[in-house]
Description:
The chain is mainly beta.
Amino acid sequence: MKRRIFLLTLVAGLFLTLSASAQTPAPDSAKVPMDFYVGNWKVLMKETPQGDVKLLFKVEKKGEELAGVVQDTTGKEITVISKIEYASDEVTIYFSAAGYDLSLTLAKKDEDHVTGSLMAMFQAEGERVKEVK
Length: 133
């Protein structure tokens, strides 16, 4: 009798172990394509030591990588983007401004908007600049 209970408990435990699963990653359909970030983005970085800062990021695809430049609101180029890291749902843009090496992380909010942070400290919001044809 004890042997039956032991075997039944063992089988039930094995069944529970095999049927339990960890959280599964989101399907690939949740992945934001790299091409989403290509284009011109007007980004507002809030409450920095210099106040709210607006910059224009011109991002283009070069081969399998993203590259681009940073401009001020008048269209004057401030700096070249030194590196852009692409992950499945966000990009991190590395650039220099006012003598500081900065990183801006952006994630898709909807088709024409992104949200993120500058240096993981200051909130950032961006809007795609659509070209007039």
